[in-house]
Queue: 3 jobs
Job 1
Amino acid sequence: MSQKCVKAYVTGHVQGVGFRYHTAHEALKLSLTGYAKNLPDGRVEVLACGREESVDALMTWLDKGPPTAGVDQVDKEGAEWRAVDGFAIL
């Protein structure tokens, strides 16, 4: 059971539409830890850590996001493994 962390930057109509809340809900369903936070440039940054298949599932979900959002692009990069408590909305 491989563990990994991925940081994603989501571009589009993703602020003010409940994107962080829905992302946290999906992440917790997948038993992931990390955070979702708004960035000043209008993107949302998501850090997801946990089982590799769960992180991949959340990354796939981010490509579409919740029905209230309009995702244009998701840039993903590997992140150093870190233990995070829960999934925070920052």
Note: The first strand starts at residue 3 and ends at 13.
Job 2
Amino acid sequence: MKKALITGVTGQDGSYLSEFLLEKGYEVHGVIRRSSSYNQERLEDLLTEEEAKALIDNKNFHLHYGDVTDALNVTRIIGEVQPDEIYNLAAQSHVRVSFDMPGYTLDVDAKGTLNILEAVRILGLAEKTKVYQASTSELFGKVQEVPQSETTPFYPRSPYGVAKIYGYWITKNYRESYNMFAVNGILFNHESERRGETFVTRKITLAAARIAQGKQEKLSLGNLESLRDWGYAKDFVECMWLILQHDKPEDFVIGTGEMHSVREFVQLAFKYVGIEIEWSGDGVEEKGVNKATGDVIVEVDPKFFRPAEVDQLLGNPTKAKTLLGWNPTKTSFEELVRLMVESDVKKVKNESKTTKMFD
């Protein structure tokens, strides 16, 4: 039985990857940070009651208290588990928040990656343990070519992207310096019903569900012109696994090869709750109006703009399709949005009408 260690196990990707690996017959170990609340609460938040019970009660699923910023702790956990595969999904991954917390983002996303690689090296596991580093399309930032592939030059536009640049290069450096099977998956935007509620896609689908049910008046967003390559997180974790099963360590772009605007995501999400939006104005004055009622339900708020914008991201998944046999569009963009909206419609039905202090 193979052993896998997953950092960031309580996130969207960590939960899907845990389920995927357990189905493959792995013994799965997850790293969770200590908090004053129930330590499995985050997983139970993400999953349905049945999914959470199936995962947490699985005899091959184990949780460990830890933090990738603590080198001694990371070394102890890796030494105890002796994993065949490590998936480093731990990160401060909210791009806008990285501008407010650049130091913390650096500690987790850059130093955390180094701590894992160095632990594998000093424990003498370089020949046994394969390491997957969750890299990001934000490395490309101010894109130098469209679409972006494994050879596209980097130009990050956020503290998050800059910190992840270090994670990318230190992974490659350890691979070349110590002959480690250490690889980067350059993940483009991937969403799901389990996406955190502060991320723009989930914010949109929740708002569509709440507005349709009379529990929210309007949705405030930043740049509606932003173009992104959005895939389904459940499909993307399969590619993470495939990268570690490849016969040699290589870096791969993980994207769909399709690009859509934030405005298009909004339009489709509201369509799935039976609301047709008409747009008027432009820039910060742009409004989304409910065609049936004339009510303004979408507006632009400059507070959600980034200090340095990333206008478009589009991945070229040719290498992953060709060498790994991965299907990047197993779940279409339209299906992804529908899945998220339907999940949030059910969630909102159980909510009381409340006003949130923070967006």
Note: The longest strand covers residues 130-136.
Job 3
Amino acid sequence: MKNYLLLFATALALASCAGTKQSTSTTTAHTGINPNENREEKSPAGETILIGPTTRVAFDQAPHSNWFHPTYQRYTPNAKIMEELTPLLETVTFKAFVGSWCIDTQRDLPRFFKVLDMGRVPLTKLQMYSLREDRTSPTGEEKPYNITAVPTFIVYNKDGKELGRIVEVAYPTIEMQLLNIIKGTEKK
């Protein structure tokens, strides 16, 4: 009987250690929590909105996933344009200013991420900031960029020079406008 109790206690101790280790590892790797990112506040209308530096992780959680995931799944970028755009995406970085409360952001941000994903762009090449309805953030990240509407996607070359912007609405599509910006053929 003593042997069974000792065996049971040993197995229980090993299982709890293994469970704790696995849980900690998964949580850290999965969320990458930074207290300065993915902050939320209530809008004047009582809606939960994102503010300040934001990562893709924020859009995998409710309430933002409610609009992000369906639009992301429905959008299919033009394959021919993506074939030309994908190698060019290696040479650029992005800044995005979005409003989780904004219908234009809710339409185009998932599409933007779909294009980045299909183009195999690492998320480290994107800095994203969520703004309030008055186009401000808690620490003013938007001020140097003259943000007048959201979403605003700014494209930079490898030297950090701004190549162009998609402001509020991509025309005719996000992938086509990105291609034109990077190639320098966008109509002003």
Note: The longest strand covers residues 48-54.
